[in-house]
Design brief:
single chain; 221 residues; alpha/beta; six-stranded mixed β-sheet; three-stranded mixed β-sheet; 9 strands; 18% strand
Length: 221
């Protein structure tokens, strides 16, 4: 097992639990954290004992977004050419690489998921949140999202509310519009996600992978 510094990686009963572990920075997505996260997901994808991965945040929230206080231009997790919109292409390719993993990935959201944190939620195959969680993309007040999955995932009316009107959604509201799959009372969130992941862990890995690919292929088409 790889020795990670910015995340915690645990395996239990066919489930990998990957915890963003910078609570003092509200799990801001530094390059080091993104590198650890993507590597951990690849590790789980190659482990024959793991059927599904769960991504969650330590401390008070899921993630406050990209770590703008750090140097995001150096030590990026992988290569993209240094031409036009390089940062947006870099993070989009990273998040889309999660779609390319064979096994499903779940986002478990509590507190808030903002900006790049909300983009990470969109990169996961399934997403569940506490009913009182707060999901938003405040960057849209002055720029485009870097990984703009919202019009495809939400439909244009709800995407307009998020990107143009700058609306913040509660977990319950996010579930109602399809920004996430379901919302649960905060005290029940972890148990519910583990239950859902447990059902997936009982399915043969080849069946999980072909069903994930079928959904993504239809979405891409």
């Amino acid at each position: 097992m790889t020795d990670y510094t910015a995340i915690r990686y645990e395996v239990e009963r066919g489930r990998a639990r990957i915890t963003l572990s910078r609570p003092e920075k509200r799990n801001a997505l530094s390059n080091a954290l993104r590198a650890d996260l993507l590597e951990a997901l690849r590790e789980a994808d190659g482990d024959e004992n793991i059927h599904v991965s769960i991504v969650r945040g330590a401390g008070s929230c899921f993630s406050s977004g990209y770590d703008l206080g750090s140097d995001l231009g150096t030590n990026q997790p992988y290569f993209t050419s240094q031409v036009g919109m390089q940062w947006a292409r870099h993070v989009s390719e990273g998040w889309m690489s999660i779609w390319d993993l064979a096994k499903p990935v779940i986002a478990q959201v509590h507190g808030y998921a903002m900006a790049g944190g909300l983009e990470l939620v969109g990169a996961c195959d399934l997403a569940y949140a506490a009913a009182d969680a707060r999901l938003s993309h405040p960057v849209t007040r002055f720029a485009l999202p870097d990984f703009d999955w919202f019009p495809v995932g939400l439909g244009w009316r709800h995407a307009m509310e998020l990107q143009v009107a700058g609306r913040e959604f509660s977990g319950a509201e996010a579930a109602a519009i399809g920004l996430i799959n379901q919302a649960f009372p905060a005290a029940e969130l972890e148990a519910k996600v583990l239950e859902i992941a447990g059902r997936m862990a009982a399915v043969a890995i080849p069946v999980l992978t072909v069903n994930k690919r079928a959904v993504h292929t239809a979405m891409e088409a």
